[in-house]
Amino acid sequence: MRVLVVTHYFPPEIGAPQARLSELARAWADTGDEVTVLTGMPNHPTGVVPPAYRRRLRVHEHVDGYDVVRTWLYATPNEEFIKKTTGHLSFMVSSVLLGVRPVGAMDVVVVSSPTFFSIFGAWAIAKLKRAPLVIDVRDLWPAIFVELGVLTNRRLIWLLERLELWAYGQAAEVVVVSEGFRQDLIRRGVPPEKVTTIRNGADLERFSPGGDPAPGRHRLGVADEEVLALYVGAHGISHGLDTVVDAAALLADAPGVPVRFALVGEGANRSALVAQVDRLGLKNVTMHPGVPRNEVPELLAAADICLVPLRDVPLFSTFIPSKIFEYFASGKAVIGALRGEAAAILRDGGALVVEPGDPTALARAIAELAGDADRRAAMGAKGRPYVTAHFDRRQLATQYHAILDRCTRSPEG
Questions:
Q1: What's the rounded Cα separation, in Å, for the pair 383 and 299?
Q2: pLDDT for the residue numbered 382
Q3: How many CB atoms within 10 Å of residue 173?
Q4: Within the chain, what is the greatest distance between any pair of CA atoms?
Q5: Going by C-beta distance under 8 Å and a sequence separation of 6 or more, which residues neighbour residue 192?
Q6: How confident is the model at residue 61 (pLDDT cuts 50, 70, 90)?
Q7: Percent of the chain beyond pLDDT 70?
Q8: What's the pLDDT score for residue 237?
Q9: How far apart are alpha carbons 283 and 249 in whole angstroms?
Q10: Which 3 state secondary structure label does DSSP give 206?
């Protein structure tokens, strides 16, 4: 099967969409498919394009058994809504104008949302290639921006929602990452038989228990006597990291085992978090830049506790942060500060779960685990087999491939 994956985000950029799509592409290529990824020049989340990609309209690469075609886009930091939208629109246009010819003939086109506007570029490409379109929905867009208060213009929201539903109507299949997403789309009129849930998972070879903690602890500046509470991922407005900082403030001078908080990543809210740490004068919190994906296992090996927070927003009860699965695969004790589907997965895997937006509850849970090494070990021992049984990325890729096969064989496809 010839598979084209259209995505605004892709490695060497770091993040959940990049991990999901690159691992799916590799798995499909390993089974004999001809896979091509059409993406932009890497720049997320800093807006800085690496020297090898600058001042170029198109770049061809071959990695992990599949081809990558990169086209020019307007690179901008992941901070300002208007600039980010302009960047998204630029790739929508360049993917069609610069990408259609070099990717060749295709049997199916898979497009990732976010970004929302990539869908329309992929739709045009699918029409030109006479191939069915599969939309991979990782965020409910524009609903997430409405919930967060970023979008408030009712006419614009109405227009974007109409475009969103039109796009789903054009797709042969819609794949979502949570059952909450699936129910939302069905409630809004997308046919149930068209929507399938394929959750995120973990690369069980890359993420595994038992790594040497020393290099990561040295890198993060963790003292021997400190318990490390680690967050690795995006520092966006949706992630609730201000609650983590407030919890750290509550534990700064608390009796018992000292806890070091390390936040690793980039994002729109990072500067505000740095200012919050400085304002509170916290010495037990360190902020670290994002790292390439191949360096994440070293940091997880150093962690005693891994954190999964989200903001206290109703829509987020349908979200499942993908870092959950990598934490579990690494055999770590996990604390989540969220609700809904993700909270249920965390509890099933042996994690602790507290209410989102409650720094006191989060601080209490962290202190509880910090003083109980045996309990942390038992939690980690339960998480690994749980994610192996239910969230192995290779198995999920096989399930996803069945969807691609189905839509290419159907008369509608």
A1: 18
A2: 97
A3: 23
A4: 67
A5: 186
A6: very high
A7: 99
A8: 85
A9: 9
A10: coil
3-state helix, strand, coil in the chain (%, to 5): 45, 20, 35
The pTM score is 0.90
Lowest mean pLDDT among 125-129, 236-240, 276-280, 387-391: 236-240
> Which CATH architecture describes the domain 213-390?
3-Layer(aba) Sandwich (3.40)
Structure tokens at 334: 């996990």
pLDDT exceeds 70 at position 52: yes
The answer to whether 265 and 235 have CB atoms below 8 angstroms apart is yes
What DSSP element (H or E) covers 17? helix 16-30
> What would the pLDDT profile of 100-154 be if each residue is shown by its tens digit?
999 999 999 999 988 889 999 999 999 999 999 999 998 888 887 788 787 888 8
Picking from 210, 201, 230, 138, the residue whose alpha carbon sits closest to that of residue 386 is 201
On the question of a common fold for 2-201+392-409 and 213-390, the answer reads yes
Query: CA torsion angle for 118, 123, 124, 127 (degrees, to 10)?
Result: 160
Domain residue extents for the chain: 2-201+392-409, 213-390
Judge whether 410 and 171 are in contact, CB under 8 Å: no
Q: Which tokens in the block code for residue 387?
A: 């994610």
The CATH fold assigned to 2-201+392-409 is Rossmann fold (3.40.50)
Plot region of 357 (φ>0 → left; ψ -120 to 50 → alpha; else → beta): left
Length of the chain: 413
